[in-house]
Amino acid sequence: MIEILLAIIIVCIICLIHPSGLTQFVYFVIIRIHRSKWRHNFIKRLLKGKPHLTTKGFCTVQEEIDLIDNVDKTLTDRISFCGFHEDGTMITFSQVKVANVKKNRVTFRNSSKEIFVWEDDVIEQKTVNKVFTGKMNLTVLEPMRKWRIIFQGFLKSVSGGEKSVYANISVLWQCSSDPYECAQNNTLWSFAKFSAERLIDYNQLKKMITGQTFRFDQWGELCGTLDIDQSGENFFRFTSPRSRSFSKLSERDGNTRTIHYIKLKDKCWMLMLMKDYLCDFKILSGYIAYPNGEIWPLTLKDGASDSTVNKPFMEETAFTQDGECKVLKILIQIDEKVFADETFKRYHVNDEAAFGCQLTEETKHVVFKMNLETSAIHKYAYDEEVSNIPLVISMKDSLCKRPDLVGGKGASLSKLLDMEDDLGVIIPIGFCVTTKAYIEHIRENKELSCSIESIHYCIRNKQIEQLLKCCENATQCMARTRMSDVTQAILMDQLHTHFGSGYENECLAVRSSAVGEDGLESSSAGQMETILNVKGYDSIIQAILKCWASSLSFNIVEYRRQYGQRLTEPMAVVVQKMIKSEVSGVLFTADPLTNKGSTIVINAFPGLGEVVVSGKSNIDTIFITRTLDQHLDIRKRVSAENKHDGDKCTYEQDICLQDEMALKICQVAILIEVQFGGHVDIEWAVAKRCVYILQARPIISVAGETDEDLMHEFDTPVTDSKECLTTGNIGEMLPDIATPLTIDLFGRAVDLATKIMHGCSRALRYSTYASMLVRTFYYRMFISLSVICSMSISSLVSDKSKVEMFIMGETLPENSVQNLISFRGRKPSRFSRLIRLLKARFETRRAEKILRSYEIILQDTRIIHHSTDLNDLMEEIESNHEHYFKLWTAAMYQNAESAIGSAILMSVLCGKLNKITPDVSADLASLLSNCKNVYSADVPTMLADLAKIIDESNQKDYFLHLSAEESHAFLISSDIFGEKYRLFLERHGHRCVREADFLELSWAMDPKKLIQSLKALISHGIFNIRTEPQTTKEIVENLRSPLTSFQKFLFRSFLVSVARKGVAKREWGKSLAIKMGDVLKQAYWKLADLMVQESRLPEQDLLFFLTHREIKTLIETRSPELVRKSRKRRNISQSLLLYSFKKVNYGAPIPLPMDVERSGSPTFEGQGMPVSRGIVTGRACVIKDISEVGQIHKGDILICMFTDVGWTPYFPLLSGLVTEIGGLLSHGAVVAREFGLPCVVCMSNATKLFKTGDIVKLNATEGSLCKIERKLKISK
Known about the structure:
It holds the Pfam family PPDK_N. The chain is α+β, with helices and mostly antiparallel strands.
């Protein structure tokens, strides 16, 4: 009742203030009702009656998954990716899907304005993880976040002539914004105002609402490799919006919509301009998208007249931001028109140059080259249940197309048999012994079952050295078994049916056909048994048993283990008529070395083709080039005799296969390629001028990612070339590369924490799906200083320069305030900043309560119970992700509180000049020393105490001579030292070097490095490591910065105390978040162990080179492609370790040259930021990796890239510390201040300019490190 009265009062006020407001309000109510009803019904139909889960934007992650698989077959589904660059280069990928038929299109324009296109209709062929659509493949890697697009084929020039080029394109699309549905997200009030001004009648208004195409946009980036005509792979990054729309298939004359995607050259924001032709109106709408995720809708207006569509014309619109109306005048000029619905454009927005493209969408029937109804014959239903599976089946039977019944080879031959007439070749007749016969044969032979079980036992118990012997026993046992009478009877019947009563005299080929063989994701070609020239019934039986036995051979079992497959997959056997070939071989429709489909490669050998497949002899090779219209031309022949001399000319008479027959086989292969939907390799034979096809399978390597693709696989979009990225701060926990699982979990946890923290205080809008704070390039994590400094604009107690000092140890003039305002789109008022400060304070107190509750929860070491069932353990892990994210959010609040306390101190020290000088930095470092209850500073103290007890005992020498494993067992079981050692592991066992990486074992999981540190302390006799602390009064009186008496009083009374507590809370919150991460880390290692036992992974560490979603997919599907990808990522990560980057990068980071020149002068100096005062001279010890810590001598000045808690045990040995990255609140700075250790951070290239053994002077008061010539006596 109250709500109704309020509504009436609001309506009356509107009418009094603005008489036309009542009309607008009525339109608003009508539009609201009809749009909500229309949208609900459309989405319900779209998702087949599933409830809509929308919380923001168009749809959630789960809903896009539903859209991929369950979209209504009566709807037209359009998806497009438009990538463009300011140099004029553009590329678009589009796909229109109706039922299982897709119209694919690729358009490419180079910087010279040459345009090339490819367009084709294809029928999808589904596998477990992919949808293959001819030469263009779209794969959803992460719904709403990431897509993989691969195209391999010819592009035809539309600029004139018959020019065509072969393109090999592999790109990754990643989002940089949330999805935006204009029809829903454009303000209803704006639509109501538009309608009221024109007095649109009710029926027309209803038609305008229900006639709209359902669509959404999402901005992102296309990055990947482009190879045109084998000119070499070129890496590129393009701004790229993604659009997806749905329309009713029944509408023939629907509405039209024109969309302009525009990126300004000198601005960081993107613009989407859309003109809907609804009824008699041209409605102009759209939005502005800022790099930080903010989206501002444009005001609805009338669009320009159609008469100007082929000439430059002006569209004028506006948007309201923080109460200010901003007008946009957009000049649109046609550049190149490729299709009726795709045009490249040039733009000027308020007289500033811009670039982009135009798309046109119509809700009408899409014309396909193939009939939608007849296309269903190519779709094989592999998921249908078969109630009575035969033991033997003819290749002509429809069931023979199922790989799960007849293996990959058998299913492929059955499909080829259907195409025999169209291909104009002969497929040898035959039948298949199904996998059911294999399974029943094993079940009937207990000795065989036991021998197979022994293979599994070896894997489960990691007895790989025994695997060869077990496999040999199993194959011999299979050879000794007898085939059942039932199977033999059916087999004899099939022999009579296919080869007549004289089958005993017929030469047959008996070929293995395993499940999973010759598929889209894996191939074991040539590894299993094939027996040729088999004659007689008994020989056929023995040949089948020999094929079955080959599935248990060591080679195939190890192959399956290496790719995560079941060790004993069921085996089918193909029995075919033997072809006594004159010439035979293998043909690849894409060059297997270069993966280029413009070259067909034929391997040929006189006689039987098994020689070619097995690789047991040299072969002749023919290279054939093909064009867009499939014109074939023999480019080169290489005979077996001169295969090592590639430049030597080989003539037709030197090759066993004549040119005419080679071209004929190529034409057949091209037809097979079309039917299989991608590049294939085929086994062929020629006898009496007839071509026989013996096998066809996909080339799995062609559609895979290149090393360059994988290197950039986790790169995040950068929409603004002025965005400032740094390795500072985050580089302390992950100084080099991070594993994919770490990027997926830790990176997302920190990023999500930032979004929640600043979303709650409304300091900054953010994207739900795109990365906000954490960016990844070359597997290395960066943080966006632009994001953090943009947040400081919303703060009353901090500013850009202070944030930069805390994180970087220096200020960055290039990262200007004006750039930050442009990045976020606006600057909030002082009042709104005050409100946000108060709200942030409330959330910080709440975060502290959360941390205290988790401190109790984490005392339970069995948070995850480590089930021995993979699915149960995976569920436990997923249920704890929420705790991990929650703890990092709370820890980030403590981090912010610490920064605020330190920022207040710095503001007072800076005074009226508001300038950060070296004296200010040194004074702040002094004030922040002597913090109590700093978790990380407790590590060396506890270790020193333990070292002292061991040193004073009579077991010191015995302990020092034990191995790491023996030392750990000794300490754990000791009555004297055990309690202190166990207490240390309980309190700090979750810490280690690179502790945020899930691959890195914590001290509790692997105490070797901890034992090494403890022995070093005992050997050097270092037990008293803390210096006498100064009182706060003494520190304040000794400050260099000019302060008033009142300011000193504030410091002494509470400001310093509050800041120190903030530092302690920061370390405490971080330690708890790392501890929860260690709980998950242990669970993932247990999961990896179980997956190795179940032969889903060959090695445990490969699990950490997969994302969590991929691990889940691997458990569900045993995808060999994921195992292969994991191994390639691990290999690539090793090469990426050599890459280094600038500390500060603008735009996407670029690797630095490998070497930095070292000064040849006997003396030189480096400059950094002082964070712990003191002056010391000593021997430099340059450590680039924690594994080198054995080089540290007592009294050394350690020079390293960074320090985290894993380095802390070695601090007592040092006389000084220098790091390349860090800030006032970095780990090294905090711990160094606690122990009075002179420390300088942020010294660029220190590990390259200095070397171990240099005599250096560290002035941690001025921030310098100087190499000197004086010799020192070094204690060893």
